[in-house]
Amino acid sequence: MKLIVVSPHRGDAAFGLGLTIGIWLQQGHAVEVVNCFTRSEFAPYSDVQSLHANDRMSFATAVRKREDESWRKQYGAAKLQLMDLNLKDAPARLHCAREEVFGRAPDTSEKVVSKIRRAIALGKADALLLPMGLSAHVDHVSARDAALLELRDGMRLAFYEELPFALQATSAQTEAMVNELQRVLGVQLRETFVSGSTPLTAEAAEQRRRKIALCYDSQIDEAGTAEIAAFGGTRGGREHFWGNAAWSNLHE
Ligand SMILES: [Zn+2]
Fold this sequence. Notes:
This protein has helices at residues 12-26, 53-73, 90-94, 110-123, 138-148, 165-168, 171-185, 202-214, 222-230, 245-251, and strands spanning 2-7, 30-35, 81-84, 127-131, 156-160, 190-193, 240-243. By secondary structure, the protein is an alpha/beta fold. The protein has a single domain, classed as LmbE-like (Rossmann fold), CATH 3.40.50. It has a seven-stranded mixed β-sheet with strand order 3-2-1-4-5-7-6, sandwiched between helices. The mean pLDDT is 94. Zinc ion binds at residues 8-9, 12, 137, 140.
C-alpha cells in the first residue's frame, strides 16, 4: 500500500504520526510525507533572530529541512519519502502576524491549491492522511482542503490530530472537529489505532516519540518536547487517527 501523509509544515506529520509511520514502513508499505509550507522564518529556538531580516527565511528554511532529514533517518533503510512543495508559510505568504494565522478562511489561491493537488495526484496513494485542522491554522485547513480535492473513490482517508495544538484541545473539541468533518464530507470516521507486531509499552512509546520530537529543536523547547512525547499516554502511548470505512478492514 502507498500512504501519503500531508504535513502542512515540517514536523506536523512526525509529531502526530511518527510511531505509526514507523509501523507502516516496517510492514512494507510505502509512506510519503508531503510537506506543504516549507519556506518559513519560524525557528524560534535557533539563531534566526540574530540575522538580518533578508537572511532569515533561507536560514530557518534550511534548518528545518535538516531537522526533517534527521527524522527521516530514524527509519533507516525503510526509506520514508519526503516531498517538499516549497510554498511560503502563512506569515510570509499572507503577510500576517504569527498570531493572526488562526481562524482564517482556507487559502484557495491557485498556487497553493494546484501545488498540493498535483503532489497528491502524482503520489498515486491508496491512503491519504490529512491534518484535522484542529487549530484552525490557515496552513493546516488549506492543506487539508486542497488535498481533499484529490480524494478518489475507495481511497482510505483519515485525519490526525495536530500537535502541539491537540495538547490544549479538550476531547469534546476534537470530537466536534471530527463531527464537522463527517458532516461536511458525508463520511463516517472512526477512531483508529495501528499496532506493530510487537506493540510498544507506553514508556517505550513515549521514549520513541521523544526521540522523534527532539529532531525539531528549532521549533520546540524542552517542555514542549516532553509534552509531545507524553501525548497519548492515556491511550497506552498509542497514536490515533480518525479513518473512513475503508480503514476498518485493514488493521484489526
Ligand atoms: Zn503546522
